[in-house]
UniProtKB/TrEMBL annotation:
Its cofactor is Mg(2+); Mn(2+). GO terms for biological process: acetate metabolic process; acetyl-CoA biosynthetic process. Its EC number is 2.7.2.1. It comes from Desulforamulus ferrireducens. Homodimer. NCBIfam families: ackA. It comes from the Bacteria. This is Acetate kinase. Its main location: cytoplasm. It is found in: Cytoplasm. PROSITE patterns: ACETATE_KINASE_1, ACETATE_KINASE_2. The record marks H180, R241 as: Transition state stabilizer.
Length: 397
């Protein structure tokens, strides 16, 4: 069964065509700068051959039309006709409280998704445009929505309720939703497979560390708590996002600096995190290089990041009532031995020992704690597209 996975952002569309018999990637691509000058599509097939289409992409519809042309390209494509594609799996950022699992999309569901855009104004509208356009261009294919929030929908009430007047939860749905759910689900299941135990029997903490970072406590196979909240802003300090801060800082700063709601939002989302603290970069490679050369604020940003992870791991171990596996994933979690070592050293008091040689690896599945440690520390590269394709396949079968 051929499944197209589509991740529609505000100015880009990532896609992957998968053959789900063997879970093979037939091709993957990216349409970028949609609606901006200099737009193009870059695609790579399973032979590693690249197709670059420099073309004006004024909107998502034109972009998707051209993506379908690239997919069916006689030389660089993977199918001769889009009719061969059975289903399209769409990444949808916010499923609110209504969607605790993936769904096959129909007209009624699109309306519900549109109503929910208020909760994710930057992300859900392009996701919906992607769904509607694929319905139009591929009417034969089932369209499935896979939500970033769905895996966290099982969180208990005490984990998702904020201590603000309860009426705001009832009126506006203000509560913790959590994000990166597709990744937390994929990684926790894969970790259980590697450990050879049912995921339901394990207590797992997943650290998804990338430009956006979140941690989840996975118990009984579902998310019991997670560090992101009503929006993807709280939790760990990120590339440019604050993570947890005292909320009173916001009105204080707005008053002192005479900032509008948009301006403070921009500071919290785009100018904070490790970029804000270091004044240097949001990229951990730059920070690690600078810290090594003695840049104190780069070092401060890195140690704040690690310290925040350490605190969450401590808290979630207590919340889960123990810990079997601590898993690192995402661009930083998979690639930075330095971040992993900084975090794991804090747990030496439990008897945890790092296998330095195994930790000295990048982008690979590997157990990095020594045998006999009280819990297993490991790296599991995430694969959100595969998870979306699996969920899509399950629903359309
Ligand atoms: P996104 O959240 O956008 O999906 P990724 O998961 O791709 O982000 O992570 C991107 C981040 O991974 C980069 O900002 C960079 O800081 C980090 N990263 C990638 N490779 C390395 C590396 N070798 N060492 C340290 N950090 C790395």
């Amino acid at each position: 069964m051929l499944i197209l996975v589509v991740n529609c952002g505000s100015s880009s569309i990532k896609y992957k065509l998968m053959d789900m018999e063997q879970e093979n990637v037939l091709l993957s691509g990216l349409a970028e700068r949609i609606g901006i000058s200099g737009s193009r599509i870059k695609q790579e097939n399973s032979k590693g051959e690249e197709l670059v289409l420099e073309q004006d992409l004024p909107n998502h519809k034109v972009a998707l039309e051209n993506i379908l042309k690239c997919i069916t390209d006689a030389k660089y494509g993977a199918v001769s006709d889009v009719i061969e594609i059975k289903a399209v799996g769409h990444r949808v950022v916010h499923g609110g409280e209504k969607f605790n699992q993936s769904v096959v999309i129909n007209e009624e569901l699109i309306k519900v998704l549109e109503e929910m855009s208020e909760l994710a104004p930057l992300h859900n509208p392009p996701n919906i445009v992607g769904i509607k356009t694929c319905q139009e261009l591929m009417p034969h294919a089932a369209q499935v929505a896979v939500f970033d929030t769905a895996f966290h929908a099982a969180m208990p009430k005490e984990a998702y309720t904020y201590a603000i007047p309860y009426e705001y939860y009832e009126k506006y749905g203000i509560r913790r939703y959590g994000f990166h759910g597709t990744s937390h689900k994929f990684v926790s299941r894969r970790a259980a497979e590697i450990l050879g135990k049912p995921v339901e029997d394990l207590k797992i903490i997943v650290c998804h560390l990338g430009n956006g970072s979140s941690i989840s406590a996975v118990g009984k196979g579902v998310s019991q708590d997670t560090s992101m909240g009503f929006t993807p802003l709280p939790g760990l300090p990120m590339g440019t996002r604050t993570g947890d801060i005292d909320p009173a800082i916001i009105p204080f700063l707005m008053e002192k600096e005479k900032l509008s709601v948009d301006e403070i939002g921009n500071i919290l989302n785009k100018k904070s995190g490790v970029l804000g603290v270091s004044g240097l970069s949001s990229d951990f490679r730059d920070l690690e290089d600078a810290a090594q050369q003695g840049n104190e604020r780069a070092e401060l940003a890195l140690s704040m990041f690690a310290y925040s992870i350490i605190k969450y791991v401590g808290a979630y171990t207590a919340a889960l009532g123990g810990l079997d596996a601590l898993v690192f994933t995402g661009g930083i979690g998979e690639n930075s031995k330095n971040v992993r070592a900084r975090v794991l050293k804090a747990f030496a008091y439990t008897g945890l020992e790092i296998d330095e040689e195994k930790n000295n690896s990048r982008g690979k599945e590997v157990i990095i704690s020594k045998e006999g440690s009280p819990f297993v520390a490991m790296v599991v590269p995430t694969n959100e597209e595969l998870m979306i394709a699996r969920e899509t396949k399950e629903l359309v079968q």
